[in-house]
């Protein structure tokens, strides 16, 4: 994936700001290690760092469309993949357009010139891009339907500054590194309020949104939302259609001019993706697929099952790799390193913020670093749990009937609660419960209604909606940032919008026809898998249980407590921290016990590294 950035400033000639623009573009260098480019014309400038995937030579950016090869018409800075670019190219050719490259970027740019803003309805893929329309002197920012690729912006008095990640925007001296209570709430909760970015004044282009900026101001428009439609197919056809969609999606998503692999957990989702991709690659004469999985040193002997992780991945990974004949590599990580300062700094710089859920971020980072040595593109099973209903809380009566986000309604909420070491009065001031309650009510009011739907099916429609709009985005951001920090593109076939729309509308009683999680998906992919994986109960991305992680983390926390000037200190409940540090080592080696320590240590490093000003009394809309 690439990194994009840009600045629109109607009151100046940005040629005089070349140095700032270069700095903004350089912040994206890890996302796009293969080529850099900057285009400036009066009030508009766009920068690009490229991870070359399609047409390695021809797809350089920013790319300019000229009229009669002379006058500039539009310029694009684009990240992502449009998986139907070959069909769109043919359509455009039939309309008289000529192509200079075989890149997807040129197709997207010409499609805009040919069809205007609504061309976006025709795109199938994951993307975030900006187009400066020279004719109308307008900038448009567009993000894919599910928000797989990121895009942020900051409004100025005479335009906008934007970038794939906040760091590109923060590199512009006009943008303060200030975080208000609203921003801090965004970090502390396992709920993403759509549109919010952590830094004051910054917004994200929402999934499925177009942001148009011109001299009159900013206009936001949603071109896509989940819609309720009557599901007309019987069970047999539903399974067949799901499979046909998956076949089509994988045939498209294995296309790349660079090496491709899969991220294999031995669970249902990534095993189906790996197996289908392997079939398609073999059919097109490309040989066996490469697959990668992550594990921890000594995880085998020491593994203890908990509320959400019942089994280790390793034996199932082996079963699938043998079944499909993948070229498989296990990436085995050292838990002490995962909690160390080197990786912490890398994670914070990739995320631009502190994180909840400690070791998953550094372990993904290390996995991707190793994958990148062999591949430039990886396929992942992300998204299936949200649309097919994989998480435990989809199937728990209390979680489903409770008032609030279902993942916060179960005992498993402890996996997301990292606030126990923060001061009471800080938490009161942030009033997280009320904040969450309001967003929950807003989310419910957005859920589309299908006339005549049963109360039970409607409730499950709400729950899928909550996951797609408030939960999935957190996981997608994590995947994007951790992979892009090492220049690896991760594709997520389950989030093809046609599949999401289809599966979203399968009534819940059909979705769980055999009484299990992800029944439709299991039935649609059964023939691709060994029985052990068909029968395996869902188990999330692994987390280390090695006390070495906790020991390293405690050392970092103890160091913070020795430093009166550590910026996180005013936020801490010192008594609670001391009690935690006094506990026997090993008592808190399970992920949910460590999460509060992780949060404090990450918060402190972020406040230091990003030189953040916390303005908790300031209100932000
Ligand atoms: N141990 C692992 N090694 C490599 N990749 C993994 C591992 N665990 C998860 N992943 C990748 O991350 C994706 C999302 O992980 P998640 O924890 O949500 O698992 P999941 O949705 O249950 O998927 P699966 O059914 O494939 O385990 C997986 O589909 C897979 O591509
Ligand atoms: N990494 C990306 O975002 C790829 C952009 C575009 N598809 C290319 O191949 O250049």
Automatic annotation (TrEMBL):
Active-site residues from the entry: 2
Key words of the record: Amino-acid biosynthesis, Asparagine biosynthesis, ATP-binding, Glutamine amidotransferase, Nucleotide-binding
Positions with a binding annotation for L-glutamine: 104
Pfam families xref list: Asn_synthase (PF00733), GATase_7 (PF13537)
Keyword hit for Ribonucleoprotein: no
Gene Ontology CC annotation, any one: cytosol
SUPFAM superfamilies, A to Z: Adenine nucleotide alpha hydrolases-like, N-terminal nucleophile aminohydrolases (Ntn hydrolases)
Binding site for ATP: 263, 294, 380-381
InterPro entries per UniProt: Asn_synth_AEB, Asn_synthase, ASN_synthetase/amidase, AsnB_N, GATase_2_dom, Ntn_hydrolases_N, Rossmann-like_a/b/a_fold
All residue ranges annotated as the Glutamine amidotransferase type-2 domain in the record: 2-216
Descriptive protein name: Asparagine synthase (Glutamine-hydrolysing)
